[in-house]
Amino acid sequence: METTLSNTSSYLFGGALLALVGLVAYDRLPVILKELTNKTEEAKTTIGRTLSTAPTKPLTRAQVTEMYPEGTWQRTAYDDYVRVLLDEELIFPCIYATKGFKADNQVYVFIDSDDLSDPRHIRALASGLADYLPKARSLGPNTSLVLLAKHNPNPRTVDEYQSLFWKLLDGCAKIDKKP
Which ranges does the record mark as transmembrane (predicted)? Predict the structure, then answer.
């Protein structure tokens, strides 16, 4: 009998505790929902701002360094490119790319992954080319449109990159208005 009474009081206490927790949670529910709604709206605003400010045209060196602070993936990709380009110990890149960079004749387009077959990336390059090609001659004798991708911690093989590159070119050819 004593065990039954003890178990019953434990259940009652446990039930009362759950009811109290439920009541507190229920009372806080509007506050919690409001906080979640605010966080959701903040996220939407941030995403919208990011999408609306994402450049659709190639950027100059000055625009890249102004728009992307150190630590952003875009700035990291750009800085890595510059480091390789200016490394005199490396055989690559070619002399014309180095001259073009030093003369500030290059412009840059960024994509957020190294999946060159992604339709967004195909459109980004096509848009960049459409802007770049009409004014390329005026940018200097060693100009280039440089496509920079977010670093992939799991690099692909050369064959994979070659396949993706051809998919990128094929995708650009398919959407080219003046083939």
Answer: 12-29
* Alpha-helix runs per DSSP H in 55-157: 61-67, 73-86, 95-102, 119-132, 136-139
38 membership: H or E segment, kind and range: helix 2-53
Is the link from the previous residue into 179 a cis peptide, with omega within 30 of 0? no
Structure tokens at 13: 């206490």
C-alpha to C-alpha distance for 78 and 69, rounded to whole angstroms:
11
CA distance 121 to 150: 12
CB atoms within 10 A of CB 101: 19
How far is C-alpha 61 from the chain's CA centre? 19
Residues with Cβ within 8 Å of 156's Cβ and at least 6 positions away in sequence, in order, are 114, 164
Whether the predicted pLDDT of 1 surpasses 60: no
Whole-model pTM over 0.85: no
How many Å apart are CA 113 and CA 138, to the nearest integer?
A: 30
